[in-house]
Amino acid sequence: MYFLTGWPRRLLCPLKSEEEPFHIQPNSQRFYFAVLSETQLSIWFSRPSVLIVSYIESVKAAAQFGFYQQAEWKPDDSMIAVAVSNATSLILVIVSSPLSYLHVPFAGSPRVKVTPEEQCAPALSLEMKRPIDLEAPITSIKSLQEDLLVSTADGYLHILHWDGVSNGRKAISLCTVPFSLDLQSARGGPSLDLEGLYIRDMEYCVTLDGFAVVLDDGRLGFISPVASRFTAEQLQGVWAADVTDGTCVAVNNKYRLMAFGCASGSVLVYMIDTTTGSMQLSHKLELTPKHFPDVWNKTGSVKLIRWSPDYSVAMVTWECGGLSLWSVFGAHLICTLGEDFAYRSDGTKKDPIKISSMCWGAEGYHLWVITSREEAELVENMEEAPPPTQTKQAGILQFHFIKSALTVNPCTSNQEQVLLHGEDRLYLTCGDPTQVPSSSSDGPHTPHPHNLAHGLEGSPLHHRSAPSPNSISQGLSTLLGHKHWHVVQIHSTYLESNWPIRFAAIDTAGQCIAVAGRRGFAHYSMSTRKWKLFGNITQEQNMTVTGGLAWWNDFVVVACYNFTDRQEELRLYLRSSNLDNAFASVTKLHSDTLLLNVFRDLIVLFRADCSIFLYSIERRHDGPNPSACVELLQEVSMSRYIPHPALVVSVTLTSVRTETGIALKAPQQACMAESIMLNLAGQLIMLQRDRSGPQVREKEDQKKLLPFCPPVVLAQCVENVWTTCRSNKKKRHLLEALWLSCGEAGMKVWLPLFPRDHRKPHSFLSRRIMLPFHINIYPLAVLFEDALVLGASNETVLYDGLQGPREGREPLEVAFPYCTVERTSQIYLHHILRQLLVRNLGEQALLLAQSCAALPYFPHVMELMVHVVLEEEATSREPIPDPLLPTVAKFITEFPLFLQTIVHCARKTEYALWNYLFAAVGNPKDLFEECLMAQDLDTAASYLIILQNMEVPAVSRQHATLLFNTALEQGKWDLCRHMIRFLKAIGSGEMETPPPTPTTQEPSSTGGFEFFRNRSISLSQSVDGIAAGKFNLQKTFSMPSGSERWSKDSDCAENMYIDMMLWRHARHLLEQVRLKDLGCFSAQLGFELIGWLCRERTRVARLDDFVMALKCLHKDFLWPFPVIPACSTSSPFKDGHRKTGEGNFSTLSLTQSELEHISMELANKGPHKSQVQLR
After folding, report:
1. Are 365 and 400 in contact (CB under 8 A)?
2. Cα-flanking dihedrals φ and ψ of residue 611, to 5°?
3. Angle in degrees, CA 803, 806, 810, rounded to 5
4. Edge-to-edge strands, sheet with 23-26
5. Sheet containing 210-215: which strands, arranged edge to edge?
6. How far apart are CA 159 and CA 230, in angstroms?
7. Which of 155, 194, 206, 251 is the most exposed place for a label (fewest CB within 10 A)?
8. Helix-, strand-, coil-residue percentages of the chain, each rounded to 5
């Protein structure tokens, strides 16, 4: 959502002053910032961040009015109200802007020619108007549209006109406002318990039309007018129950939330119940002991809360210092009270930064922070000693942020890329199109080549015969191939005249990006690495994007306002043409557009009159360049359901529907626009097409669209929604689902349920089910077919060791770590499978898992599901009446990787949980034998470790022998070497009880195996069924050292036991005249072949059939047979022992010397002649 980047920047005031700034207040557009010190009012500009003008109070006036305390801007930026400490006065300062500019060289490219207006900050002048006496100390001031609301310490609310005329004042006593827990039980008379109380902090909420207030006794409330104006007879208030430690408040207009800071250090976020009017607790923002155990109850009370300009995140600071960032519904993003923010590289603890005031900059790219007085002195001492001519005023820090494009442009047409934008650059997760390998139908990792002009490639995981332009899906190797971002610098010419960037959008293929600032827009191609800007600067400056940007094939779809015609318009620009209005398709609109989205060949617009318009787009080739034809299809009025148009966060067209027989529909109908999803202040509302009325056949009227049913609320606390317009028969569960991000509640998926094998669905079975699950990252994109969530996270790097302290002073880069943003991803499939099994929907879970079995990380999904369920159930303190682990085990047996999944999970789990695991999945001896039958020796070796820790040595020796013999026969030499070490470490294998845990243990040097310690456990199984002639084998840790080393006799017995098995295998090879395998066996395992051959000279090494042996040699080493000369007419073998179609060959009679010569040839030409010698 929002991510810190780089180091904070320090802003130095050029004026000489001993006063430190302590309060900062932005104007409505956040281009100007009023900074207060005790007797000085300064106006700063946003870009460049410079001081424009400063007003210094005279000594006489300062003695009369006291020091400055608070400031508030008039909405049109023409006036500033300043509250002073010396009791009762409010000073109004007139801000005038002459047509001139300060000369401030802009930090851009010197080769770019810009006008003075673009590189300079505007010049302002400040003039004090007469003060207004309010007869009591001022506690809070807030701007209320054309009025100014001031609360005073005598318990009054003063409503003033900004022009300050005497007859424009109203005073409302707090005691006359009736308060209750809800509006239904409001009392008629005034509240008696408000005597002597006053409002400590307040903030106006436009969408709730009222004020959230914090009283000086810590109680929280909400005051709203009965009518449209504030008068004494028309105000009413509601309490927040059981809260008496409130300190501050901030309201969220987009989501209709009120965040109250408390003395306990937590933030309580309230909402207003629409039926009763009461204040209901929505969620809490608090640091948990799980993530920050050392700062629990050490933060102090909440000092400030600031919502970002787009209301998607909230920044919180405390009295004891520190900053923390949460999403609107409580997902924790950043905290400076832990890790590298709180500790130096040597482990010493830093003091947290203490903040006296802070505010967000334009579009949330900066956080302006004024540190407290002692903090400013500390940081000032960290800096280099300034020259005598430089001012020693410090204390303003500027933190830099990059944010997700979803916060301001929630289009769902490009959901498989993560797009972040900062104030001057973009961060993308898409790959380089020039480095994409050729596609293949059987490679799960293979990405497809991007066809930039037409976009005609299907998903890399599932190729389709007739892909559509909207069926593009990037491959795993493209989206997950590396951890680096693709960073695109925004064109400096466009940026300098149109900063800040307000919207950004990326196309489905991830190869084209469009950005829009204050005026106009520009787009960038990843293939050419070039920006396209308006050739006519007048056209650029005559339009501003209002409803966002989106891509439709190779067209940019823009909802904008035309300043020349004073008209709202919908425009489509072709990417390949010049960026000019002559090549644009323009559609006039009758109302302001707030949101825009694209679904296949449809555009959906949400307008300021709370209506939704659907347009169709059609590509035409009626000229030299392709054009787009836009036609209005349908209008849906939502004014009955939407109280304020600013509350709509996103609008989405989807193919999601809930009607009966969903699985029996044709696949292409699954891609039609079936419903509208509306995120209304966190409530996800669904409008589904009404199919209950008389149907109109498509052949008669193709343009006839069905009306929509009344809206239905699907979920609460929704931050983002993901859906796709693609279809895939094999993965219908994932592609036809709806994915939701819900803040601290994690994610939710609205999953369709299909009857198996097209059977008739059960009448009691719902068509869809909402499944919640938690993930460890903040989701920014969903890879639908790949069952992955993509996100980003903040990482920090310390640089305090690069530069030593200079006379006790450190630079700012040492006080803060360098912040970077890392790409993250997480698998979610195991959560969904588990939720389905919990709800006895095993058949649906099996269908879903089978559709994803080809994913490369599917085995990991199975392991995660077993591991999570095992950890929860085996460590539960309470008995579990209906355990899930047996169900999960039975579910996994449906897949061929069942054996690997169980043993890998066991190897990664504590030994104490093994009994619970294998009680559910089966005896490890039976699982080991299944591995041997399936010829899966590596998995069987892993089960050997389980047996060695759970069974007596005789049992593990038996199974180890079976595995060793099988590995010898199959030539698995690495496994054989591990088996030899394993057998030598068994020790006295005759013990019928598990060996005790050794006190010392040498580290294992086997490399491929992780050896567990032996543990003393009680065993219920006995050693039975040990077949005669079978040996035992087992894999354990290395030989203990010191006093635990086995005796010499036992060691000799183990060596003899291993040698007997090796001799037996060598005899078997020699009997079959497999000399090549015998040589490999000797070289790989260090078998003393020559000495063994000498001992076996008169037994198995004795050669009885020379002809058969020589034939086997030639066959084994692929050597040609000797050729009979052509003049020979007879063969010594009358019976024709060897006949071929190419000619007559025969073996020759060999003397003893010739046989020795062939033996030497064998030794010299064999595969390991340095290790094999024959005599």
Report:
1. yes
2. -120, 155
3. 65
4. 23-26, 32-36, 40-45, 51-56
5. 179-180, 235-239, 220-225, 210-215, 199-205
6. 8
7. 206
8. 25, 30, 45
Could you identify the residue written with the tokens 């079976």?
A: 962
Give CA–CA dist 412/830, Å, rounded.
25
**CA angle, 391 then 397 then 398, to 5°:** 130
CA distances from 780 to 325, 350, 417, 648, 830 (A): 17, 33, 8, 19, 19
What does the H/E/C string look like for 522-581?
A: EEEECCCCEEECCCCHHHHHCEEEEEEEEEECCEEEEEEEECCCCEEEEEEEECCCCCCH
Cα angle 974-979-984, degrees, rounded to a multiple of 5: 135
Q: What is the mean pLDDT of residues 1009-1038?
A: 33
Phi, psi of 138 (to 5 degrees): -85, 130
* Residue 160 burial by Cβ neighbours in a 10 Å radius (0-12, 13-18, 19+): buried
CB 188 within 8 A of CB 181: no
Task: Report whether 573 contacts 559 (CB < 8 A).
Answer: no
CB 413 within 8 A of CB 595: no
Rounded distance between C-alpha atoms, residue 737 and residue 771, angstroms:
11
Collapsing DSSP states into helix, strand and coil, what is residue 233? helix
Distances (CA, A) of 1142 to 1125, 1132, 1138, 1139: 14, 19, 12, 9
Cα–Cα distance for residue pair 70/200, rounded to 1 Å:
13
Answer whether 869's CB lies under 8 Å from 834's CB. Answer: yes
Nearest to 305 by CA among 234, 214, 441: 214
Q: How far is CA 1042 from the centre of its chain?
A: 51
pTM: 0.82
pLDDT in tens, 183-229: 776 555 555 477 888 999 999 999 998 999 999 999 999 998 877 66
Q: Which of 430, 534, 423, 428 shows the shortest CA–CA distance to 488? A: 428
Dist. CA 1110–CA 1121, nearest whole Å: 10
In angstroms, the CA 833 to CA 38 distance is 62
Alpha-carbon Rg of the chain, whole angstroms?
Answer: 39
* 790 φ/ψ angles, rounded to the nearest 5 degrees: -100, 145
Angle at which helices 937-950 and 973-984 cross, to 10°: 10
Per-residue CA distances from 508 to 244, 454, 456, 782 (Å): 51, 12, 11, 13
815-853 burial by CB neighbour count: b if 16+ within 10 A, else e? bbbebebebbbebbbbbbbbbbbeeebbebbbbbbebbe
What are residue 241's DSSP bridge partners?
none
Tokens for 1084? 């790989």
The pair phi, psi for residue 156, each rounded to 5°, is -110, 150
SS3 (DSSP) at 1093: helix
Quick check: 340 and 34 in contact, CB under 8 A? no
Residue keyed to tokens 């890399």: 460
Distance of CA 1093 to the CA centre of its chain: 64
Residue from 849, 679, 816, 692 nearest 353 by CA = 816
pLDDT tens string 923-971: 999 999 999 999 999 999 999 989 988 888 888 888 998 999 999 999 8
For 95-108, letters b (16+ CB in 10 Å) and e give beeeeeebebeeeb
pLDDT at 690: 80
Residue spans of beta strands (DSSP E) within 462-521: 486-489, 503-506, 512-516
